[in-house]
Amino acid sequence: MATVVAVIASTHHPFFYKASTATGEDRPPFADEWVRKITAFRETLTRANPDVLVMVGSDHFHQLWLDNMPQFLVGKAPFYDANWYNEEREFGMPRMFLKGNEDLSTHLLREGIDRGFDLAFSNELRIDHSITCPIITLRPEADLPIVPIYTNIFAPPMPRPKRFVDLGEAIREIVESWPSHLRVAIIGTGHLSLELGGPRQFGPHGPDPEFDRRAVEWIAGGDLESCLAEVTLDSLHAPGNATHGFMDFMLMMGVAGAGAKADYVDSLDLFHTMEAYFTWYPNGVDAA
Amino acid sequence: MSKYLVDKFLFTIDRDPELVERYRAEPRDTVTWWEAERANTVLNCHTGEASTWLRFTDEEREALAMHDHVKLFELGAHPFLTLTLFIAMFERDHTEPLEYQLAFAARLQHFEMPYPDITT
Q1: CB–CB of A107/A182 below 8 Å?
Q2: Quick check: A29 contacting B, CB < 8 Å?
């Protein structure tokens, strides 16, 4: 069976690519520290030596639209083009091209549906920065096949937080039941407190530093019990109007498992939103 | 209320570079043209199939024609769509980093929690 060699949860910040590649006067003052932290974070994936990446993210109204909106969708394609015109325009994101792993996509869809998750699928999916940001930060060679999984954290009505956790737990079990010798890393990105298009956006910190502090504590300690006790669809409005992206972190806590303490934890207080980086090694990093 | 249609306008304009420029330069004409010619297009159909019933309220049409992002927020337009498109249209008129984004936020300061519902 396949081995889950790393579970990684991270924020996805579309400005990292531009900030990290800028030079001279264009280079923001925080870029060097950001690059140092990302380089250290990247090493946590490199050490696990994965063959395949399961990538959990959320389409930002690119291919998925309100006339036909899935709650959870698995990509099943041999290749994925990536990034969109408006991401190029606003963030300077590069166009990318990634290989898929259809065998793992098929396995995730079959087993997921059989476990009660009516997963949508796509045979032609152009992925966006929720998945390409972690490729850029964690595997800039973009040389490993991926299986993208999209969640709806964007367009109400959305599934409740517990559903995200349950799906995360199921994804972990399904990957571990994949008849393959390959080493799989499961990577997901979301947000801590975040405001987009509202009065609290683009402040000197994230809109709710106290939420961010507690969120990092929940994730780092694998404290799903406290997290689920406090986080609801309604409560997520308070820290910032785009904070429902935190549910993808909760999904990743489900992948890591209740009570699983992260082996690597880091964060970076930036303008607009706090960055946070977590890695778990379910089988230990050397034995994996 | 046709929040969905307002979102559909923002979505389809934002993802077409020519329409971004057209809406920036001629907002009222663009809204009139779009409502007549594009509002009922079923986006996921490969042929020209169309709906028959979608139209803006007067308030929505006026907010879009006036580039009134504060009104759009009040009406429950999806703030990500509004922000993304308005940055594309107006950030270029500002010189300081984040100047436009911060001014955009400042104009919304009178909104308190809970914000207008964005459910479509």
Answers
A1: no
A2: no
Contact list in A for residue B49 (CB cut-off 8 A) is none
Task: Report how far residue B82's alpha carbon sits from residue B102's, in angstroms, rounded to the nearest whole number.
Answer: 14
Residues of A in contact with B104 (CB under 8 A): 197, 201
User: How much is the mean pLDDT over chain B?
Assistant: 96
CB within 8 Å: A202 and B73: no
Residue A226 near residue A218 (C-beta atoms within 8 A): yes
B27/A contact by beta carbon, under 8 A: no
**Alpha-carbon Rg of chain A, whole angstroms?**
17
Cβ contacts of A194 on chain B, cutoff 8 Å: none
Measured between CA atoms, how close is B83 to chain A, in angstroms?
A: 5
Please report, for chain A, the start and end positions of each structural domain, with discontinuous segments joined by +. 3-280
Provide CB contacts within 8 A for A215, sequence distance 6+.
A192, A193, A227, A246, A249, A276
Judged by CB atoms within 8 Å, which residues 55-84 of B form the interface with A? Answer: 73, 78-84
Amino acid B47: pLDDT: 82
Closest CA to B81 of B59, B64, B99, B62: B64
Q: Which of A15, A83, A85, A236 to mutate to test the interface with B (most CBs of B within 10 A)?
A: A85
Taking the alpha carbons at both ends of chain A, their separation in whole angstroms is 13
**In the structure, what pLDDT confidence band is assigned to residue B83 with cuts at 50, 70 and 90?**
very high
Q: Residue A118 and residue A168: Cα distance in Å, rounded?
A: 14
pLDDT along chain A (288 residues), means of 10: 98 95 95 98 98 98 97 98 96 97 98 98 98 98 98 98 98 98 98 98 96 98 98 98 98 98 97 96 77
User: What gap in Å lies between CA A79 and CA A75, rounded to an integer?
Assistant: 10
Q: What confidence score (pLDDT) does residue B46 get?
A: 81
* Third-level CATH fold of A3-280: Protocatechuate 4,5-dioxygenase; Chain B (3.40.830)
Per-residue pLDDT, A288:
43
pTM for this model (two decimals): 0.97
ipTM (interface predicted TM):
0.96
